Model the fold of this input.
Amino acid sequence: MRQMTFTLLAGLLALSLAGCGDSATLSEEEGTGPNPQLPPPKLTLFPTVSLAPARGWPDGSAPVPAAGFSVGAFASGLDHPRWLYVLPNGDVLVAETNTPPSDAPRDFMGVAMAVVMSIVGAGVDSPNRITLLRDADGDGIAETRSAFLEGLNSPFGMTLAGQDLYVADTDALLRFPYEEGETKITAPAVKIADLPAGPINYHWTKNVIASGDGSRLFVTVGSNSNAGENGLENELGRAAIVEIDPSTGKQRIFASGLRNPNGLAWQPDSGELWTTVNERDLLGSDLVPDYLTRVIEGGFYGWPYSYFGRHLDPRVEPQRPDLVAKAIIPDYALGAHTASLGLAFYDGALLPARYKGGAFIGQHGSWNRRPQSGYKIIFVPFADGRPSGPPEDILTGFIDLFGFARGRPAGVAIDRAGAVLVADDVGNAIWRLTPATEATNAGALP
Done:
């Protein structure tokens, strides 16, 4: 296995450097919005591999904010911070987490993906911890941090409903008692429901959000494959958003055909649930765009049979024309292979009024597109509960001039003061975006 890994590592780097696979013919912008351009799929002998090896941030450097914004480090020196949740008292919870270990045998593609993840900074062991960050003096920098919950199993999503804190581990939804101001929870977890995991667990992250009254929880469960190649029998309960009754643990599929949903948020004007979804790979650099969409109860969004409505994936057999006929077209494309993860609707008062109700989205970055896409924070404006314009780059500079990744943005949250927080799981930092001041930003170094 070790020899195979070294061989794959050399091969993937060679593919990346040699330009094997295809290159995009569309700009990243042409693959965004409510009506993205969708060229015919490209099935190539070799996959397109364009990697940004993880490097981290040089001392004194930071991402580059858009005009009108300042950026600073809210916290640094973390261990693979992936997801964020802001408590009512302003404390910030950070899921320090990564892929769970697995003894399941891997095929060639599985080993190849593990090597890719290692190169781009996702090969570290999972800390299995939720850390609490506190900015007691309100200066935009967390002075204290504490291990809030430990011994978890690849935790990801967090949500508070009343005095109950829910955490979505990779294999279970857990509940903990919470008291405002505490810096550590020692009470044992209460398991509310099992979540699909198992030996493959291709998309391991599980996010969770509560309804306004706390009577329902919604959990994201990604697919167990890229496009069903591991057998549809391994996709039961997956590629979906699941509704769970926290009082009984009873669950049902709320919406399906969502390859890998991650972000979950309530749009403040409409009150509707929205999600960000990572679409499939290996159909060319221009396909398939990730997307932002309303989550319609009982809705089917195409995976694995079709994408962006009724566009058939030629690799999937047998097809299901009955399901494809009712596949919902997503509301808003976010660009092919951008790996759009974090989602936060702006409900603060710190930023200008034009940001109110719009969506800040963390794009983790591509590996299957040339040129690379994502690796930034974007903003999608909203009006009357719907996207109302093109995406805007808000935080960039995560890739240096030599093609190395200094960081990779993931989770996004709005803090109690109205600033935008960004989890950077390669830079091991939490960045904080505020309106521009007289202060000079460090910016990205060459």
Observations:
- Residues 2-435 form a domain with the Neuraminidase fold (CATH 2.120.10.30).
- Residues 1-18, 438-446 have pLDDT under 50 and may be disordered.
- The first strand starts at residue 32 and ends at 33.
- The chain has one domain: 2-435.
